[in-house]
Amino acid sequence: MPLVLLRLRAHKILASNPFSNFPALGESPCPSDSEHSGYWESTSFLDEVDRKGETSFFDSVSGDLLFVAPRNRSVADFLAESRSHGWPSFRDEEVNWSFVRVLDDGECVSVSGTHLGHNLPDKKGNRYCINLVSVCANPR
Predict the structure, then answer these.
(1) DSSP strand E in the chain: where?
(2) How far apart are CA 81 and CA 18, in angstroms?
(3) How far is CA 130 from the centre of its chain?
(4) Do residues 9 and 56 make contact, with C-beta atoms less than 8 angstroms apart?
(5) How far is it, in rounded angstroms, from Cα 48 to Cα 43?
(6) pLDDT tens-digit map of 13-44
(7) Cβ–Cβ contacts within 10 Å for residue 124, how many?
């Protein structure tokens, strides 16, 4: 199962040490403003996501495993839904509830306090639209 290690605007993966330009655990990986819709498509995400199986997504602050996708749907369905909504979009079965919480106002946070995004339910159920920079970390 591959890890999501993305080259974001200010970060680049180096062949010799792919983690050297990522923030250390506990450091914020991005400015305080939120990602704009579609930002994830300007990263290396589409090149790095596993096209045949599941991909793991880790908290950018703690390194905890937050999401594993796709589950109970195809990679094509996962990517199509994410494109449609503008952010990587996860469903209940793809959430690691040991480390993810949804607040009363719909905000999704990790148990470490990282803002992840929001739950925006649709006719299929809960849909967690998550800021990519919040889940592109190294595993703990």
Answers:
(1) 55-58, 65-69, 89-90, 100-102, 107-110, 115-119, 128-130
(2) 29
(3) 6
(4) no
(5) 10
(6) 323 333 334 444 444 444 334 667 777 777 77
(7) 9
